[in-house]
Amino acid sequence: MEYRHLGKTGIRISELSFGSWVTFHNQADVKAAVEMMSAAYDVGVNFFDNAEVYASGKSEEVMGAALKQLGWRRGSYLISTKFYWGIHDNVNEKNTLNRKRLIEGINGSLQRLQLEYVDLIYCHRPDKTTPIEETVWAMHNIIEWGKAFYWGTSEWSAAEIVSAIEIAERHHLHKPVTEQPVYNLFSRQHFTKEYERVYKDYGYGTTIWSPLASGLLTGKYSQGIPADSRGALKGYDWLHDQLTDNQKLAKVQALEPIAKDLGCTLSQLGLAWCLKNPFVSTVITGASRVEQIHENMKATEVAPKLTPEILEQIDNIFEVKKEEDED
Ligand SMILES: NC(=O)c1ccc[n+]([C@@H]2O[C@H](COP(=O)([O-])OP(=O)(O)OC[C@H]3O[C@@H](n4cnc5c(N)ncnc54)[C@H](OP(=O)(O)O)[C@@H]3O)[C@@H](O)[C@H]2O)c1
User: Is the pTM of this model over 0.85?
Assistant: First the structure.
């Protein structure tokens, strides 16, 4: 496992990390979480991603209980959580980044995670109604109180990120240091176009999500939706169109000969492709069972085999023209 600096911070993060969205509480109990986190940690993963909204707080509870059982030295790993949607359907408590909510949010997350602090907190989405200045101050205060060390954004626009950075600089506050955007073979335009300025001008980090497009890039959806997959879970029907899209499935199928030549699986190829982007600080992987972790972590061995020629072949399958990607 290699470690990359998280943007311009001094902290180094494993190039592959592990997140708990969908899985913890819904598909994985504490025992399974211990098993999966252990398998990741044993090969060098040092970052575990979470959010208060995942399973309405239950995902943090599962991770907290798992960490307690695992008993790792606190300095050896990084934990994150995120705020925006909230877990209470009430005015001031949902879809917001107001000061009161963020501070109540971190206190709740720390309780559920059974931790004194998390390493990284994210604003899970931008809030168009709270002044960015109020959010920047609240994130700064949480860090000053020792409840977190760094903060970041998720799916903010470049303009919103730059505005937050400039407010922080003006008032000598802790700046956001990383974005958490979607990035995979199907969803790359936003990452490459929207954020280029913030990587280049501000050295912003990126902890990217859904690297396998919720499992579509594993090839498992080629014959329909398997009963034991995310696509079959109650409440995830909104994923069906994407997971059964024939054009997308044909592209995944076209990757098969490339994976075969490289001697790897489609999952490993999809993750390795994300690793090749130097602006990616870490690829947050997801898994519902430990076998997937064992398979996915080997993507670090595949990434060095992706030559410019192979990357071009992949671009051709996804119909990405070079100048389009670089525009
Ligand atoms: N900031 C945000 O807005 C945001 C949004 C989404 C996610 N995230 C973060 O990013 C993390 C990763 O996202 P993701 O879970 O969507 O990642 P993903 O890699 O796109 O999908 C992971 C899912 O694909 C399936 N899978 C993975 N490896 C497999 C393998 N080798 N063979 C077969 N199936 C495999 C598993 O689902 P099944 O086995 O159930 O089919 C697994 O849970 C999340 O946990 C979360 O921490 C952040």
Answer: yes
